[in-house]
Amino acid sequence: MKKIALISHGCAKNLVDSELILGILKDNGYEITLNEDETDTVIVNTCSFICDAERESIRSILELIDKGKKVYVTGCLSQKHPEELKKEIPEIAGVVGTSDFTKIVEVLESENYVCEVNPKPKYIYPENVERQQITMGASSYIKIADGCNYRCGYCVIPYLRGNYHSRKIENIVKEAKELVQKGVTEIILVAQDTTGYGIDIYKKPMLTKLLEELDKIEGLGWIRVMYAYPTQMSDELLDTIAKLDKVVKYVDIPLQHSHPEMLKMMNRPAFDYRPMIENIRKRIPGVSIRTAFIVGYPGETEEHFEHLCEFVRDMKFDRMGVFKYSREKGTPSYGMPNRVSAKEAGRRYKKLMQIQQEISAKRNAGFVGKTIPCIIECYSDDGEVIARTPYDAPEIDGVVNIKTDKPVVPGDIEMVKITGYTEYDLIGEI
User: Which CATH number belongs to the domain containing residue 89 in this structure?
Assistant: First the structure.
C-alpha cells in the first residue's frame, strides 16, 4: 500500500477539500499520513487568497522539495498559476485545480507530469466521498456551497472557484449526522456566502430550512453559521436563528467597510449598515456579532477611514477582524489608482485594532460572574482546560481558560463560571 502525506493551507473551506482528497485516496487504497517525514510523496493543498497566503504555500512546497519529496500541488494556488508554478518550480510532480481534485488519483498514478486545471472552474461537491477528518475534535466544518456569484473588488475567489453551487439539504443533513456519530458536538456551516445557500438549486434562499432540519439531529450540540452577506440578512433568517435551540446566537457578517463611497468602490452593497446591525440585535437577544474590515483599499482617504473608526466605536462589535488590502492580479481593484502605501495601511490597521481591543476588553468584563455554557476543546500543556463560549468560533475568536479538578471530555458542553478576562479571552472555573 502506497503511503501519502497531505499538508493543508488556508481557510476552513480548503480544509474540507483536503479532507475530501484524503477520502478519495483512502477509497483508492492509499495509506494516509499527516507527517511528511513518513513518506516520499506529499500533496500540498494551497491557498492563494492574498499574497501572504501564497508565500506560505510556496514556502511549504520548496521546503518539501529540498527534503527530496515528490510534491503534488492542489488548491487555489495551482488554479491561479498552473503554468507559472511548473516553470518556477520544475520539480513539482503534478498540479490539480480547485474543481479537479476528484482526479487526484489519476494525477498521482501518471508516470509523467500532469496539469489537471480547468481554466473555468465549476466546483461540484463530490457527495459519494467520505471525508477523512484531519482535525477530529469538538467541532467540524460542513461546506454547504462553494464558488461565488459576487464580484467584490478585492476578491479573487470567484475566479478560482467559479460561480456559486449549493449542495442539497438531504446531503448536508446526512453528513452532519455522520459527524455527530463520530463524536462531533458542533457543526460550523461554511461557504463563500452561507446566506445565499439554495438560491441556485431551490430558486430561493434556503438557509432557514437547512437550519431547521439540522436542529432536529439528536446528539448535536451547536450549529454555527459563518460568512453571512449584508443583503441576505432577512427577518425570517434572524428569527430562525433566534428560535432554534441548537443554533448559537452568533452572526458572522464581514462588512468590509462602512463608508458608502468605499463600499461602491469595493463592489459591495452600499447602504447604511447601522439599522441592519440594530435589527440583528433586536431580533436575536444576546447575539454576538463578528465582522471584518479592509483598510488601505485603493481610494480610501483619511475621511473614509475615520468614518470606519467612528462606525466601529458606535457599533461595538463583539468580535472583529481587520485586513490590510492585498493587491491581487485578476481582481477589479488591481489596476485602480490612488493606492494607499503599505505604511499607511499598517497605521490604519493598528488604530482600528486598538479601538476594537478596548471594546473587546469591556465586553469580556461584562461576563465576569456569569455562568455560561462552554464547549470543551482540549487540555493545555500546563493542565488547564481550553473551552469556547457559544459566542466564539474556533481559531478566530477567543477562548475560555478553565481551572478545574473535574475530569472533562473534549466535545462536552459544560456550565462555566467566568472569573476573569483579558482583552480577547475569558478565565473560568467549573
Answer: 3.40.50.12160
